[in-house]
Design goal:
single chain, alpha/beta, Rossmann fold, seven-stranded parallel sheet, 33% helix
Length: 198
Amino acid sequence: MSDNSSSEVASHESPSNVLCACPAVSSSRGAHCRNLLTREGTPGTVIGVTVATSPGERLAEWRDAIDPSATQLSFVDVTHGGRSAAMSSDGLGDWDRTPADVVEIEEMDLRRLGTEITSQLQQASETPVVLCFDSLTDVLQFESQERIHRFLNVLTARVEETGAYAHYHIDSDGHADRTFETLAPVFDETVSAGAEWG
């Protein structure tokens, strides 16, 4: 996959939907996530969508970017029916005292996932509203590119309609070029490991 230059990434002010294409294990992934969370200042609401990661893992990554006491937090968490012994039942782990609403989906179901995300977007009362989707790589283990493309067309429209800002993680090393060619056009921008955001 080819990287966008920083000038291309920053060419539009505040795009609604950004594809964050970085190696799954890299400092750039976390840095881009935190920058995208705060691109409109301190977020009033953060909606996390977690598939292979847990809400607690997302909160740990965001600790330097947001203050949970000043930001409304909610998660749509695909649990696959289980948690490790170290993780609380709601997926918050060591963050179980953090005020956060967690909606659990036991199995990957794009229709239900889309419904729950839309509900969270519509219920968000504190702006700006930021959505972090972690990750498309994990969803691709369960669904075809074509179904995910259709799902993303609807979801990105919902994000834009509600005035929210969203970013969607994908492992830049984990897919063939065809995957990026199929999915990238759905988004307003792509930020990658070789580019700087903002």
